[in-house]
């Protein structure tokens, strides 16, 4: 079971570790939420599982009971050393593979490139949530399911719908690959140190036929959304020559007025833009 808030503080003191705000280090101290994460994941027997930011190993401990192999990625060297000592027997058996690297630069951790299927279950460090998600989608080796603890505002941005200020490039990419199946509110009091925001535990299931945007299309769409106040016709004229006609043709063929802004265009239309770049 998870450490209580007092036990968490004591362990951090023993490790001489002060939670790093810039790394989004807020440690879960509520056992019910850990059990909820495991239940939502519904891990099939023998399924490889990726955990990002295992921290003190609260969730790791439970995942090891269900997953065939847990592939954990932890950036903090001090926390990694504690995990190596705490889970030494699991590491020696190959049941836990711990990678001490930046998860944004290594979004798959030690998941093999030829791994046929895997899941992600993680209390994702809030500081890297969007960047890690984009990096994961860019690998084109996406998991069957993700159960993630995220900042409430991050979930609202990721799963924003068109015609709202929160709709963004990552929303476009996620809508093409996943569905948001379950969400469960989590109080800020379930963490140490207590963050300034509330959290949400979500489950995302991969679509039967996910669409993965190419590097070229992702870069173009992201670039367009950074200029979200400008109209699409204006943006098309300012683009590189190889994209100008593609963008104008896409607007015309999909009956999208040139005075629309990026957040007003639905996800399926962005997918058509990406497909047009391949022709």
List the helices and strands and how they pair.
Elements: H1 5-14, E1 27-28, H2 31-41, E2 48-52, H3 58-63, E3 70-73, H4 77-86, H5 88-92, E4 96-99, E5 118-123, H6 129-139, E6 145-151, H7 152-158, H8 169-175, E7 178-186, E8 191-192, E9 199-206, H9 215-225, H10 232-238, H11 241-253, H12 267-276
Parallel strand pairs: 2-3, 2-5, 3-4, 5-6
Antiparallel strand pairs: 1-8, 6-9, 7-9
Helix pairs in contact: 8-12, 9-12, 10-11
Radius of gyration: 20 Å
Overall body shape: elongated
Report the end-to-end length measured between terminal Cα atoms: 54 Å
Structural class: alpha/beta
Q: Which spans of ≥5 residues are poorly predicted at pLDDT below 50?
A: none
Strand/helix succession: HEHEHEHHEEHEHHEEEHHHH
Helix fraction bin: 25-40%
> How many strands appear in the DSSP assignment?
9
Strand content: 15-25%
Q: Tell me the strand order in the biggest sheet.
A: 4-3-2-5-6-9-7
CATH superfamily of the largest domain: Vaccinia Virus protein VP39
Quickly count the helices.
12
User: What is the fold-level CATH name, i.e. the topology of the largest domain?
Assistant: Rossmann fold
The CATH architecture of the largest domain would be: 3-Layer(aba) Sandwich
Largest sheet: 7 strands, mixed
Describe the protein's architecture and organization.
The protein has 2 domains: 5-206, Vaccinia Virus protein VP39 (Rossmann fold, 3-Layer(aba) Sandwich), CATH 3.40.50; 215-276. The protein has 12 helices and 9 strands. By secondary structure, the chain is an alpha/beta fold. The mean pLDDT is 93. The protein has a 7-stranded mixed β-sheet. Helix 9 (215-225) crosses helix 12 (267-276).
């Amino acid at each position: 079971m998870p450490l209580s808030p007092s036990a968490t503080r004591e362990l951090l003191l023993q490790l001489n570790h002060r939670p790093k705000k810039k790394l989004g280090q807020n440690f879960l101290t509520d056992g019910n939420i850990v059990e909820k994460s495991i239940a939502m994941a519904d891990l099939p027997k023998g399924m490889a599982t990726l955990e990002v930011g295992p921290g003190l190993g609260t969730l790791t401990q439970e995942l090891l009971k269900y997953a065939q192999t847990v592939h954990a990625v932890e950036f903090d060297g001090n926390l990694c050393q504690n995990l190596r000592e705490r889970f030494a027997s699991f590491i020696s058996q190959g049941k836990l593979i711990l990678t001490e690297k930046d998860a944004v630069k290594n979004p798959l951790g030690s998941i093999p490139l030829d791994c046929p299927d895997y899941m992600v279950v993680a209390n994702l460090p809030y500081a890297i949530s969007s960047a890690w998600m984009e990096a994961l989608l860019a690998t084109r080796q996406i998991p069957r399911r993700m159960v993630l603890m995220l900042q409430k505002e991050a979930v609202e941005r990721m799963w924003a719908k068109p015609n709202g200020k929160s709709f963004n490039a990552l929303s476009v990419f996620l809508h093409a690959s996943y569905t948001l199946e379950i969400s469960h509110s989590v109080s800020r009091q379930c963490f140490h140190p207590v963050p300034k925001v509330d959290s949400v535990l979500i489950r995302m299931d991969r679509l039967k036929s996910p669409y993965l945007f190419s590097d070229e299309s992702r870069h173009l769409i992201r670039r367009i959304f950074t200029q979200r106040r400008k109209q699409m016709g204006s943006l098309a004229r300012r683009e590189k020559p190889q994209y100008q006609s593609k963008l104008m043709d896409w607007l015309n063929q999909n009956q999208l007025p040139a005075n629309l802004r990026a957040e007003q265009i639905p996800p399926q239309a962005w997918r058509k833009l990406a497909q047009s770049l391949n022709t």
